[in-house]
Design a protein that fits this description.
Strand order of the largest sheet: 3-2-1-4-6-7-9
Number of strands: 9
Order of helices and strands: EHEHEHEEHHEHEEHHEHH
Distance between the termini: 36 Å
Length: 281
Amino acid sequence: MSRPRSITGRPVVITGAASGIGRALATRLSRLGAPVALADVDEDGLKATAAALHGRVLTRVLDVRDAADQLRFADEVREWLPAPLAAVFNNAGVAVTSSVLDAVPEDDDWLHDINFRGVVHGTRAFLPILAEQGEGAIVNTSSVFGLLGMPYQSAYCAAKFAVRGFTESLRQELAGSAVRAITVHPGGITTNIARNARVRRDPTGLGRSREEMAAQFEAMTMTSPDKAAAIIHTGVDRGKARILVGPDAYLFDALARVTPTHYNAVLTRLLKRPRRTEAVR
């Protein structure tokens, strides 16, 4: 099978573009000549991303939970496009930390509406454009937590597993066409997702503050947003159907295959080992 056409220098859509991986993707692809259509619910962050770019940019304040507004955004992008759309990155995401026992349904619904239904809405809004063109890529952000279930992350894991299943189903439907469906599984990326998470209390019972939990998460991250963006861009250009981002993503993937029911015990032992300073980026 021949390698698909590169997305470099061609128009793309990115949600969650106000920070993190979304901003890094926008920065990288714009620098390489791509017109970028950017969306996020964070208007100030979105403006900051756009202000740092030098190429053609369309910005849209968008709550990905709103299916009708996603369709309106797709219509705006269709009118704005200077060339056929190369890729749609459904990247917006949030986090909730809680035990299942103490879970607050409203928090879980908030997360599912953004992390899963937002991806579904974005896919359904933009897929007709790609189908009419006869080419392009839907790139949906799952997670390593879409490969393994983790304690105190039941809502997040459920949504990310759902993104994976939805995108893989779509991939089978698109088989034989030049429209692709791609899942992205980032490991620990140094973004603000932990600091912006909904946390009612420390689910481990240790009494850690939100700030302390976020700092501990960030201390374990192994990949910068810029590096993540480079890996994702390269993976899309190489025709990958599934993109693992970061060395921890490869570890999670291996554990899911080798020890599908006992991986947490292995991870717990590994996390207790001191890491070499040079491994942290």
